[in-house]
Design goal:
This is Transposase. It comes from Limnospira platensis NIES-46. This protein is mainly alpha-helical. Helix content is 51%, strand content 0%. The protein has helices at 13-25, 30-42.
Length: 51
């Protein structure tokens, strides 16, 4: 498998804040929390933290 990504993810500040809130509060369904974490880790925006 190659290390190239098929799709680029670039979140703006508002999207990033909303996904961080979902992943930190713990009250959302597990699938939604996991999806939020994957999107946050995939963010390619400059200066975005990796985890």
């Amino acid at each position: 498998m190659g290390s190239r990504r098929q799709n680029q993810v670039k979140l703006d500040q508002e999207q990033r804040q909303r996904l961080e809130a979902i992943s930190k509060n713990g009250y959302a369904p597990a699938k939604k929390i996991l999806h939020a974490k994957v999107l946050l880790m995939s963010d390619e925006r400059e200066g975005a933290s990796r985890y």
